[in-house]
Design goal:
Blueprint lengths: L2 E4 L4 E5 L3 E7 L5 E8 L51 E4 L10 E9 L18 E8 L5 E10 L4 E10 L5 E13 L4 E9 L2 E9 L3 E7 L11 E6 L9 E6 L5 E7 L5 E7 L6 E3 L4 E12 L2 H16 L13 E3 L1 H4 L5 H14 L3 E4 L21 H4 L3 H10 L3 E6 L3 E2 L4 H5 L19 E2 L5 H15 L4 E6 L18 H19 L4 E4 L9 H4 L4 E3 L6 H11 L8 E6 L12 H8 L3 E5 L7 H23 L1 E4 L8 E7 L5 E8 L10 E2 L9 E4 L5 E3 H6 L2 E2 L9 E8 L2
Parallel strand pairs: 20-21, 20-29, 21-22, 22-25, 25-26, 26-27, 27-28, 28-29
Antiparallel strand pairs: 1-2, 2-3, 3-4, 5-10, 6-7, 7-8, 8-9, 9-19, 10-17, 10-18, 11-12, 11-14, 13-16, 14-15, 15-19, 16-17, 23-24, 30-31, 31-32, 32-37, 33-36, 34-35, 34-37
Helix pairs in contact: 7-8, 10-11, 11-12
Length: 726
């Protein structure tokens, strides 16, 4: 059993293989947080301290006891209005305008299996793999009920948290802020690690001390965003890749979010993860409820590397669903950088012919196949095949490609609409716009109001008409702007941003149910919606619009802290690179792209015979190593932000195979030798390197490393395969 409740001491204990999470219902009914960290036994309520702290309020229940204050005690779910002046997990405005929610314990339930969240993505597990704890809290005056949900995956070292807020009172209330997880640390000095960026340069590693005051990362853009990823790490000051304590928080959501870290007056630290409070005023009529998206918690006392391994396994096995969650992915070529909008059916057929000759599995026809779409200013919303442009029906084009032994995929952007479109002329009210104001454009397009079922249903039917025309085996779902003008003619305005995301999830759920054999790839200008919420529906996501190999090393490095490489869609592009103008060798581009779901995005016709041979070799090598990349544990061996090289590796579960990749990111005159130290091997094992045939002790590879060649050239790349001798 992973969940325990002590009847006498009213302590809840959640146990995983390597961690313990503990909380207590105190004498006043408050739910206090006791401990989260390395696995331990016994009651941890001795960690609570009580002192008379000036200017810290005391609940009326405490009488004349000035030592009892919510302003100092660690809490599981702190709500505004109880005398706690720190950041709140919950803020509710009552019908009278007051903001107070005094939550007290009412009851709890422990059951087998993992809870589900209607309409929202969440970790799933078999009944025997998990347990659920549900704790019911209630404000006895307003009758607001809060159900705290905990899912414990013991073997995976994962604890999930979600919240259901229910209005049991007789008047309308408004939720102004709602988090799904709070971590209160009564002592310690911590760093907050977050992943910032911008379009085409996402998920850069950032480590900053948690200092007195409050600091936050989040999104107000309608999506989880390029700017900040909805996942953070709280770590000890001295934590490294291989040593020290760290706590992960991954928000399973694709819309606006907020993570706050606060060090209070007593040196205590509170970290919250949940909904963005800006532009969020979620009204609840009597008996209505709000389900707060899930946060995945994980703890490691073996550094960031082990934390990443645990998150990778969780997302790979308990978030990603469907046929392709564990299946090999097709090697594809995308038409975008090969032709942009300037293609016809013959262009796609030629791309397929070249793909077949090189051993590529699939051709993807990107933007420009529908409506009057010859640039990015027109046509979105008109999901009718432009047969004049293609020179044939879509069915005929798909058949021509299939006849060459190549699979066919297609690009869509269903959430968007162009003002220059038949759909907009017929239904301008279907787009987000504030009455009486001109809309804010992004990429010269507007956002469809997916909070409305009739809008979603129309687009769904139109997309299905396209997919039913032929043997389409892959769909790339794009979304190319941040959302503004969030206003719905049919909605309660403070709810619309969240209901939009719920609408996207509803659409995706129906699409994956109707077409279970289609590989659905997510995208939002590349990595603008690279989050666990989307991975529930799309087992791979276009990691970034930046296809430059050197920049990709940084982007993929930051991505790897939480997300398995199977979710990272990565392509080999032409040089000079279309984003940076940089020229890097085809071999290096191939090694960087083979980190994840592998493909190409260039004109195959323009390749020389030598380059074509290199492509064939890359594809053969990728297929040879694909299972190890897909199933193995991933280890970061260096930082592209600090070191002269970037190195990473995959190790099989039984520790008998290891695949090492190294890219030399700096080269100087009279270069010093870099020694790369491996991880995850059996120290007592002997490993044979496949190319040279040389054998190495596992302990030697991990402690001393292997020297990298010193040779001329920009960003030289190396791949080594090690197999344990019998």
């Amino acid at each position: 059993m992973a969940v325990y409740y002590g009847v006498n001491d009213k302590i809840f204990t959640l146990q995983t293989r390597h961690s313990t999470y503990q909380m207590k219902v105190d004498d006043f009914g408050f739910l206090l947080h006791l401990y989260y960290g390395s696995r331990t036994e016994g009651n941890m309520d001795y960690l609570l301290t009580y002192y008379d702290r000036g200017f810290s309020g005391n609940p009326h229940d405490a009488g004349e006891d000035r030592t009892y204050s919510m302003d100092a005690l660690p809490q599981e779910y702190p709500a505004a209005g109880t005398g706690d002046y720190r950041n709140s997990a919950l803020v509710i405005q009552g019908a009278d305008g007051s903001e107070c929610c005094d939550l007290r314990y009412t009851s709890h339930e422990i059951c087998s299996g993992k809870y589900a969240l209607p309409g929202l993505p969440a970790v799933f597990a078999e009944k025997e793999e998990a347990q659920t704890l549900e704790i019911l809290l209630e404000d006895r005056i307003s009758k607001i009920q809060v159900k705290l949900l905990y899912g414990v995956l013991e073997e995976e070292d994962i604890i999930t948290r979600s919240v259901r807020i229910i209005n049991r009172g007789g008047e309308e209330v408004t939720v102004e802020k709602a988090a799904s997880a709070c971590l209160d640390f009564v002592s310690g000095e911590y760093d907050l690690i977050s992943f910032y960026g911008r379009h085409a340069m996402e998920r850069n590693f950032q480590r900053a001390a948690v200092v007195h005051g409050s600091q936050s990362v989040g999104s107000r853009r309608g999506t989880s965003s390029h700017q900040y990823n909805p996942a953070v790490i709280v770590s000890d000051k001295n934590t490294t890749e291989d040593h020290g304590s760290c706590f992960g928080m991954v928000f399973v959501y694709s819309g606006n979010f907020l993570c706050e870290a606060e060090k209070d007056q007593y040196g205590q630290t509170r970290v919250l993860m949940g909904m963005q409070s800006d532009q969020f005023h979620f009204s609840l009529l009597p008996e209505e409820e709000l389900i707060v998206p899930e946060t995945i918690l994980c703890y490691s006392d073996q550094g960031f590397g082990e934390l990443s391994v645990r998150y990778h396994r969780c997302i790979r096995d308990h978030i990603c669903r469907g046929k392709y969650s564990h299946a090999p992915r097709p090697v594809l070529v995308n038409s975008w950088e090969a032709a942009y909008f300037h293609f016809n059916g013959e262009t796609i057929c030629q791309l397929a012919k070249d793909a077949a000759e090189l051993g590529i599995d699939m051709v993807v026809m990107d933007d420009g196949w529908f409506g009057k779409r010859e640039d990015d200013n027109t046509g979105l919303g008109d999901w009718q095949v432009n047969e004049k442009k293609l020179g044939c029906t879509l069915s005929e084009l798909v058949q021509k490609v299939n006849d060459m032994g190549v699979k066919f995929g297609i690009w869509i952007e269903p959430e968007m609409i162009s003002e220059d479109s038949d759909l907009y002329r017929a239904h301008p009210d279907w787009a987000f716009q504030i009455p009486g104001r001109n809309p804010v454009r992004g990429r010269n397009q507007l956002t469809l109001d997916f909070s409305r079922a009739e809008v979603r249903d129309y687009i769904f039917d139109e997309i299905c008409k396209v997919l039913d025309q032929g043997n389409i085996e892959y769909v790339k779902w794009d979304m190319n702007r941040s959302i503004a003008d969030v206003y719905s003619i049919s909605g309660r305005q403070g709810r619309v941003a969240h209901e939009y995301v719920l609408g996207v999830y509803d659409f995706l759920e129906k699409l994956t149910a109707k077409y279970p054999d289609i590989l659905l790839e997510g995208c939002s200008g590349g990595g603008g919606r690279f989050d666990a919420g989307m991975m529930y529906y799309t087992p791979q996501i276009w990691c970034s619009d930046n296809t430059d190999a050197l920049d990709r090393l940084r982007i993929q490095y930051g991505t790897s802290f939480f997300y398995p490489m199977t979710t990272v869609s990565a392509h080999v592009s032409a040089v000079p690179n279309h984003q940076t103008g940089r020229s890097i060798s085809l071999r290096t581009r191939g090694i960087v792209a083979s980190t994840g779901a592998f493909g190409y995005e260039l004109s195959l016709q323009k390749l020389t015979e030598e380059e074509k041979e290199e492509v064939r070799k890359q594809i053969d090598e990728y297929r040879k190593f694909e299972e190890l990349i897909r199933k193995g544990d991933y280890y970061r061996l260096s930082s592209p932000f600090q070191d002269e090289y970037t190195a990473w590796m995959y190790v099989s579960e039984n520790r008998e195979k290891a695949l090492l990749h190294v890219v030399m990111t700096e080269n100087h005159g009279n270069m010093t030798v870099n020694y790369v130290k491996l991880k995850g091997l059996l120290p007592e094992g002997v490993y044979r390197e496949s190319e040279s045939g040389r054998c190495y002790a596992g302990s030697a590879l991990m402690n001393a490393g292997i020297p990298m060649p010193v040779e001329m050239g920009e960003c030289c790349a190396y791949r080594y395969m090690f197999e344990k001798d019998a």
